[in-house]
Design a protein that fits this description.
13 helices, two-stranded antiparallel ribbon, three-stranded parallel beta sheet, 10% strand, single chain, 9 strands
Length: 283
């Protein structure tokens, strides 16, 4: 289960590329992008003449992904009738094309994802319980970006690196990075990526991106007094967490060069070395 924009498409691709199936097809289908009839044909294929517009036999995604990996996104949007057909593939590896009586056999790894609460859907009768337990063999929860704030500096450096000029990417000023770490990112990784692209454009030839260039919703964001912070515990713990992230980001930006990282953070090199040792950031 995951939230929108968290980068879920990278996870099944990484699983496929590191598995024994990597020499075969990796295929993706988003169930919410089709109505029921079109999704039926997309998944299982169809026989010529089975419906208006079926001018030729067409293999479905399950056939295309044979011996490979099939990433089935937004499976919670699938109709009950199609859930039965998918369950049949998972149980025995067999299916029929739309309008065809010939049974076909495939060997496919299925990775399914959804932003819905399938447990609640099972209780409400909107999702088949037997299918739920078939796909819920290994459950990977991909949390929202606000729940994994340590990833933000790493992602920022990655997106800045895409806009590298003259071999050195732009960098965020400390106050800019601090504000981005405080922001909850409701749009997750996609929102962060779009914001970095916007900042790079607005910064022009400047090597440093100041907080003044942030989108107003990010620049003006301030947690309310009753809003729980992302960093559990005391104020010193929250300050240490922010300090660690900023140092980690600066060290990555400057490829471990402590002199440049210290200049970036406006601290002495000796103090930076002490903090790097304290937070075990040497790697």
């Amino acid at each position: 289960q995951r939230a929108y924009g968290t980068g879920i498409d990278l996870v099944p691709r990484a699983i496929h590329d590191r598995s024994e199936r990597r020499g075969h097809q990796y295929v993706v289908t988003n169930c919410s992008a089709f109505n029921e009839n079109l999704l039926d044909s997309e998944l299982f294929g169809h026989k010529r003449g089975s419906f208006t517009g079926a001018v030729a036999d067409k293999p479905g995604v399950f056939e295309t992904a044979d011996l490979g990996t099939f990433f089935l996104d937004e499976i919670g949007d699938m109709s009950p009738a199609l859930q039965v057909k998918v369950l049949r593939v998972l149980q025995g590896g067999t299916f029929n094309r739309v309008g065809d009586t010939d049974t076909r056999q495939v060997d496919v790894r299925i990775i399914a994802a959804t932003n819905r609460d399938l447990t609640a859907m099972v209780k409400d009768g909107r999702f088949r319980e037997d299918l739920y337990y078939r796909i819920n063999v290994i459950n990977v929860h991909l949390p929202a970006l606000r729940e994994r704030a340590d990833d933000i500096p790493v992602l920022i450096d990655h997106f800045l690196g895409r806009h590298r000029r003259h071999r050195r990417p732009k960098r965020l000023a400390p106050d800019c990075l601090a504000q981005m770490l405080a922001y909850p990112w409701p749009g997750n990784v996609r929102e962060l990526e779009n914001e970095i692209e916007r900042l790079v454009v607005l910064a022009g030839d400047s090597a440093t991106i100041d907080a003044a260039l942030l989108s107003p919703r990010i620049r003006n964001f301030a947690p309310s007094d009753d809003e729980p912070t992302r960093d559990a515990g005391s104020l010193p713990a929250a300050i240490e967490s922010l300090e660690r992230r900023m140092i980690n980001a600066a060290m990555r930006r400057h490829h471990g060069n402590k002199t440049r990282a210290a200049e970036d953070l406006k601290v002495s090199r000796r103090n930076l070395i002490r903090l790097v040792q304290k937070y075990q950031l040497e790697k």
